[in-house]
Design brief:
Length: 546
C-alpha cells in the first residue's frame, strides 16, 4: 500500500467486505517516517473520496425525487379516473389530475428512505495510466456511502385554479392592467415567515400585496398585476421562500396593442350646408383589428366638464390667427347640441367594425359650427379625435370662397333671424372679397395668371319649394374683361345637393400701374327660394417672386 501514488473510485461493484488493502503489519512497526509517507500517499484518495460523496449526494436527491413522483403517479392512478386526451392517454393537466394531486399532497405523511452506495477503490499509479488499460479494482478496498433521504409534503400549497402554479393573464391591451388573485394555504403544523424573489422592476408584473407571515392552516390571497407597455409575450417566476421549502409560481401574459382604424381620412368630418332648423346625418366606421374585444366611449368636446372653464377666457378672435386654437365653434341658441352621435358606448369584437352616425342640427344661420368627437378606449385612452364641421343657411342657395371678412366667433348679442314662414327677397348686398396676386419673377417671361375660385351651391332641403334648382349670374362681365379678368362660367344653374365652381383668373392689362392695386367689383345674384345679391370685390396686384 505504501507504493500506491493515487486511486480512483468506481461505484456500483458488489462489495465483499470492508478492507483497506494493507499488509498485516501495522504502521507502528515502521516508525514515523513511514507514517508520513502513507499520509501523503492517501491524500489524493481522500480528496477524491470527498468529491465522490458530494456526487453521490446529488444522485441520491435525484433518486428521491423520481421515487416521490413515481409514488404520486401510482397513487393517483389507483384513486382517480383521469380524463383522457384525444390519443387515449390520461391528461396530466385535467381537473381530475389536479384534484388528485392536491389531495395527495395534503394527505402525504412523510417518508424516510436510506440508500447504501458501495464505492470500490482501484490501486495503482494513474500518472502513466491509459484509458484503454483496465484498472485493478479490489473488493477489499471498498467505501460505503449511506444516504438518508426524508420526503415531506410542501409547507405551502396553491388552493385556487385547481392547485396549478402556472398563471396566464392572457391578452391584455397595452397600457392597461390585468389583476389575478392566487390563494395560498399553509398546510404545515407551524407558522411560516415568507420572503419573495424579486420580479423585474422594469417588467410588466407586480406583486401588489406581499405578506410576511402565514399562520398554520391559514389561507391568504396574493394579487398579481400585469401591465404591458408594448406588444410582447412576458413570463417570470415568483419564488415564495420559507424555512421549510420554496413554492415557485410561473406568471405569464401577452401585451396586445389595440389597433383601431377609422374610415374618415384626415380626421375631419364636414357635414356641409344645411337649412337652419333642419338636420342631416353622416356615418363612419371604426374597425377593431386587434385580437381582443375593446370597450369604447364617444365624447363631444362641447359637452366636456372643462367646457365651462374654457369659456371664461378671452374670445379667441382677440388673438392672432396663428394663435387661435378654438375647437368648439358656434352652438345652438336653444341649448341643444349642434352635433350628436350614436352609439355613445359599446363593445367592438375582434375583427369587427362599428358603425357610428353623426347628426348635424343647427337652429340658426352660421358658417362656423364645429365640435370635436373623441373615441375613448377602456375608459382612459383616446383612440381618435375627429373634427366635426358644418354650416347653416336660412335660404337654399349659398356661395363660399374668397377672403375671410368676419371672425369664427359669434357676438354675445342675440342677432335677429328671419322668419322661416315669411321669407322675402333680400336687397342687402353681402360683400365677398377676392384678392389676386400676379407673381412676376422674370420681366422677359410672362407669368401664369393669378387664379381664385368661388363655389355656388344649392342645399338639399325637406321643405316644399316650387324651385328644384338654383340659378346664379355675374354681371359687368365686359368691364371686368377689360380690366384683365376672366370669369367662367358667369351664369348657370345648380341642382339641389350640388355645387358649381366659378373660376376667376387675372392678367395685368397693358395700362396697369404696378404701384397701385387694381380695384373692381361685380354683382353676383343667387336665385333659389329667394333672390340674394352679393357684391364681389376684386383686388388685384403684381408681386415680385423669388
Amino acid at each position: 500500500m505504501g507504493t500506491d501514488s493515487g486511486g480512483e473510485l468506481l461505484p456500483g461493484l458488489d462489495a465483499v467486505g470492508p478492507g483497506t488493502g494493507a499488509s498485516s503489519s501495522g504502521p507502528g512497526r515502521h516508525g514515523p517516517g513511514l507514517g508520513s509517507e502513507l499520509l501523503l500517499a492517501w491524500m489524493p484518495l481522500m480528496l477524491i473520496t470527498i468529491l465522490l460523496l458530494l456526487l453521490c449526494g446529488l444522485i441520491a436527491v435525484c433518486i428521491r425525487i423520481c421515487c416521490f413522483q413515481r409514488e404520486e403517479a401510482q397513487h393517483i392512478a389507483a384513486t382517480t379516473t383521469p380524463a383522457t386526451c384525444p390519443n387515449g392517454h390520461p391528461c396530466r393537466h385535467s381537473i381530475q389530475y389536479e384534484v388528485a394531486k392536491a389531495n395527495l399532497i395534503r394527505n402525504f405523511q412523510g417518508k424516510f428512505d436510506k440508500f447504501v452506495v458501495p464505492c470500490v477503490v482501484a490501486s495503482g499509479d494513474i500518472k502513466d495510466w491509459k484509458a484503454s488499460e483496465p484498472l485493478s479494482f479490489s473488493p477489499h478496498n471498498t467505501l460505503y456511502l449511506e444516504l438518508w433521504c426524508p420526503t415531506v409534503a410542501p409547507p405551502i400549497v396553491v388552493t385556487s385554479s385547481q392547485g396549478q402554479t402556472v398563471f396566464d393573464f392572457g391578452d391584455i391591451a397595452v397600457g392597461h392592467r390585468g389583476i389575478m388573485k392566487v390563494s395560498l394555504q399553509n398546510i404545515c403544523p407551524e407558522d411560516l415567515y415568507m420572503e419573495y424573489s424579486v420580479l423585474n422592476p422594469s417588467g410588466p408584473f407586480v406583486l401588489l400585496n406581499p405578506s410576511s407571515k402565514l399562520h398554520s392552516g391559514e389561507t391568504q390571497v396574493l394579487e398579481l398585476s400585469f401591465s404591458p407597455h408594448e406588444s410582447i409575450m412576458a413570463q417570470e417566476t415568483l419564488n415564495i421562500i420559507t424555512k421549510r421549502g420554496t413554492l415557485t409560481l410561473t406568471i405569464m401574459g401577452t401585451g396586445v396593442a389595440s389597433m383601431i382604424t377609422c374610415s374618415i381620412e384626415g380626421n375631419v368630418l364636414n357635414m356641409g350646408y344645411v337649412i337652419a332648423r333642419e338636420s342631416v346625418s353622416s356615418s363612419f366606421k371604426l374597425q377593431n383589428d386587434s385580437s381582443l374585444p375593446i370597450k369604447f366611449w364617444v365624447q363631444l368636446e362641447s359637452l366636456s366638464s372643462t367646457r365651462a372653464e374654457a369659456r371664461q377666457k378671452l374670445p379667441q378672435f382677440l388673438t392672432s390667427v396663428a394663435q387661435r386654437t378654438e375647437i368648439v365653434g358656434t352652438q345652438n341658441h336653444n341649448g341643444q347640441s349642434v352635433f350628436s352621435v350614436t352609439p355613445v358606448e359599446g363593445l367592438m369584437l375582434p375583427g369587427k367594425a362599428q358603425d357610428f352616425t353623426v347628426t348635424f342640427s343647427p337652429d340658426h344661420e352660421s358658417l362656423y359650427y364645429s365640435d370635436r368627437l373623441q373615441v375613448v378606449l377602456f375608459e382612459k385612452r383616446v383612440s381618435h379625435r375627429i373634427l366635426l364641421q358644418g354650416a347653416a343657411r336660412e335660404h337654399m342657395m349659398f356661395v363660399e370662397g374668397g377672403d375671410a371678412l368676419d371672425v369664427p366667433v359669434e357676438s354675445l348679442t342675440a342677432m335677429a333671424t328671419s322668419d322661416p314662414d315669411h321669407r322675402e327677397e333680400s336687397d342687402e348686398l353681402k360683400p365677398i372679397l377676392v384678392t389676386l396676386d400676379y407673381v412676376q419673377s422674370d420681366m422677359d417671361t410672362p407669368a401664369p395668371p393669378a387664379t381664385r375660385e368661388l363655389h355656388v351651391g344649392c342645399i338639399r332641403t325637406t321643405q316644399p319649394s316650387a324651385k328644384k334648382t338654383g340659378e346664379f349670374s355675374l354681371d359687368s362681365l365686359t368691364w371686368l374683361q377689360h380690366k384683365g379678368f376672366t370669369i367662367e362660367p358667369s351664369r348657370g344653374s345648380v341642382e339641389r345637393g350640388q355645387t358649381k365652381t366659378i373660376s376667376i383668373s387675372w392678367v395685368p392689362p397693358a395700362d396697369f400701374d404696378p404701384d397701385h392695386p387694381l380695384l373692381a367689383w361685380a354683382l353676383l345674384q343667387l336665385r333659389g327660394d329667394v333672390k340674394e345679391t352679393y357684391k364681389v370685390i376684386f383686388v388685384a396686384s403684381v408681386v415680385t417672386g423669388p
